[in-house]
Amino acid sequence: MPADKLQAWVAGLPQAVRHMVLDLAMANRRQTEASLGLLVKGAEARFAEWLLHHAEATGQDTVAVPLRERKRSIAVQARDCAGRLFRASCAACAKQGLVSQSGSVLKPDRSGGLQQLAGV
Q1: Residue 37 and residue 54: Cα distance in Å, rounded?
Q2: Sign of CA dihedral 20, 26, 29, 35
Q3: How would you label 83-103 residue by residue, b for 16+ Cβ within 10 Å and e otherwise?
Q4: Interatomic CA distance for residues 108 and 23, integer angstroms
């Protein structure tokens, strides 16, 4: 269906239905992007993407990622199947100087290397 016809059809729907259709479309897009990410991106790239998503400002021009959950849970969020992949990805990013760890806090490098690795 051509985009203009689809947009006209959606515009003619009742507001509640229109919102539901748009929410479903966005959810479908997120799932598609996640699936493509698994096919295209390696573990380090997915880890970098997770780091960027969870980074919190800690002061002037600094960010950190506090590890408030078990690494296994974080690995699932980063779409990896085990904590060892998290550790391996973290070690690989640390070796490249993209992240450092201090106790239960990860400190992403601000140089833009994580963004490049994550493909953002």
Answers
A1: 18
A2: negative
A3: eebbeebbebbeeeebbeeee
A4: 32
- List beta partners, residue 63: 57
Cβ–Cβ < 8 Å for 64, 107: yes
Instruction: Report CA-CA distances (Å) from 36 to 32, 40, 75, 114.
Output: 6, 6, 18, 19
DSSP state of 114: H
Q: How far apart are CA 111 and CA 108, in angstroms?
A: 9
CB-CB contact of 65 with 106 (8 Å): yes
Query: According to the model, what pLDDT value does residue 117 have?
Result: 74
Query: Which has more pLDDT, 10 or 109?
Result: 10
- What's the pTM? 0.43
Under DSSP, is residue 58 helix (H, G, I), strand (E, B) or coil? Answer: strand
Instruction: Determine the Cα–Cα distance for residues 51 and 32; give it in Å rounded to an integer.
Output: 21
Token pair in block for residue 12: 């003619």
